[in-house]
Amino acid sequence: MIEATLNSVQCISPGGLHTMAYKQWGDPDNPKVLLCVHGVTRVSGDFDALARALCDEYRVICPDIVGRGRSSWLQNKNLYQIPQYVSDIVTLLARVLEPGQLQSVDWFGTSMGGLIGMVLASLPGNPVRKLVLNDIGPTLNPVALARIGDYIGQDVRFPSFDLAARFIREVSATFGEHGEQEWRKLAGDVLRQDVDGSWIRHYDLGLALPFTAATPESAKTDEALLWAAYDAIVCPTLLVRGADSDLLSRATAQLMSARGPKAQLVEVAGVGHAPTFTHADQIAIARQFLLNQSFMPPD
C-alpha cells in the first residue's frame, strides 16, 4: 500500500515560532502539487484515501493546521484564525514549491480548509491554479457555527478507544454513511491517549476561543470580508455541498455559482457537513474537476 512521508516546517506568528506537520504523498520531485487542507477539528489523515487516489498525478501535501494533530499549539489562542493559517500555508508552499518550477498549486479544502484556500486564492499573485471548496462558503449558518463552537471546547475524556470512537461517530454523523472500519479510521485520526491513559481529541481546546469571542457584529464583518475574498477569485472553482448540510445553505451555494469565480456546484446526496471524500464516487468528483479541462458534474 502506498504510504505518505511525514515532514514539518517551522512557521511564525506574533507569539513566536511553531511547527506545522504535513504528510507528503507521491513523487517528491513532481512539480504538480495538490494541497489538501482539513476542517476545524480534523487532521491531515482525512485525506489519506483521496491522496492515494491522486498521488499518481500529483505530489499531494496534507498539513495538520497549527493546533491540531502533530503540529504545535499556539501560545496565543486568539491567533487560531484564518490570517494565521494563510501565513503558515505560504511558509509551507515556500518549502514544497521548488525555485525554478512552475509556482502553482491545486487546492482541496474541506470546511475551514476551504476558507483558507478561498482567502489565499483571492490574493494578487497567489499560486492557486484550481480550487475545490468542500461544503463551505462566505455565508455560514450561525446555528451550525454555534454547534461547532460548543463541540470544539468540550474537554471530554474516555476510558477506552472504543468509547471515544463512538463519541466521534455520533458527533460526525453528518459525514454520511461509512463502514465500521471507516468510522474507526475517522475517529483514530483525531484521538490520542493522554498521559493518564484516557482518550482525548487530538487538538488544542483553545481553538474554541475565537468562536466564543465572536459577536454578531464581528460575524457580519467577517462575512463581508469573505464575500470580498470570494469575489476576487479568478481560478476555476468547484463547490461541493452536502445536500443535507446545515452549515452551507443551498441558497448560498447557488449564489456562489453566480458570482465571483462562478463555482461549478455539485451536491452529494445523503451527506450533511461535510463529504469525507473517502469513497470512490466522491473521489471521482475531485479527480474529474482537477484533471480534466472540461468538467461535467455527475447526475
Walk me through the structure.
The protein has 299 residues and is α/β, with parallel strands linked by helices. The protein has a domain at 5-141 and 225-291: 3-Layer(aba) Sandwich (Rossmann fold), CATH 3.40.50. The protein is built from 10 helices and 10 strands. The protein has helices spanning 48-54, 82-96, 112-122, 142-152, 161-171, 180-188, 209-213, 216-232, 250-256, 280-291; strands at 5-13, 16-25, 33-37, 59-63, 105-110, 128-134, 191-193, 199-201, 237-242, 264-268. The strands form 2 sheets. The protein has an 8-stranded mixed beta sheet with strand order 1-2-4-3-5-6-9-10, sandwiched between helices. The protein has a two-stranded antiparallel ribbon with strand order 7-8. Helix 1 (48-54) links the parallel strand 3 (33-37) and strand 4 (59-63). Helix 2 crosses helix 3, helix 3 (112-122) crosses helix 8 and helix 5 crosses helix 6 (180-188). The longest helix is centred in the last third of the chain and has 17 residues, at 216-232. It is globular. The two termini are 32 Å apart.
